[in-house]
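Hey L., structure's done. Input below.
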Amino acid sequence: MSETRTRVLDDIKSAMKAGEKERLATLRLISAAIKQREVDERAELDEESMISVLEKMLKQRKESITQYEKADREDLKAIEEAEVIIIREYMPAAMDPAEVEALVRSTIDEVNAESIKDMGKVIGKLKPQLQGKADMGDVSKLVKSILG
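Output:
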């Protein structure tokens, strides 16, 4: 069992004992998403796949927050924001923006990217290095701005 999976299960037990209902609900959502992916793939997830599940959950929450802001639903927005905070606890430490930019620039040089047409090569090379450590949407924008 992966380290993240073990941490989530241990934290579910702790939240139950402490009576932390909101935290417990979010941890159960994480556990359910992991189990669903394991059932879908018929295999136990490795650490990289766990990060992928958590990233997807974060992306969904960010989209929901945007929608709730537009609908002026502060109550629902607050719930989603609280879930984001808990989910982020299980993500790897975020990279400094300057480090991300340096890595992007070195990767562009490494793959000899010259225009936007080469963006796929750059992102393909960066994704394994940055997954869970940087917002890939922001990375994509940075690559576009450098290449464009």
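Residues 15 and 44 are 24 Å apart (CA to CA). The mean pLDDT is 93.

-- N.
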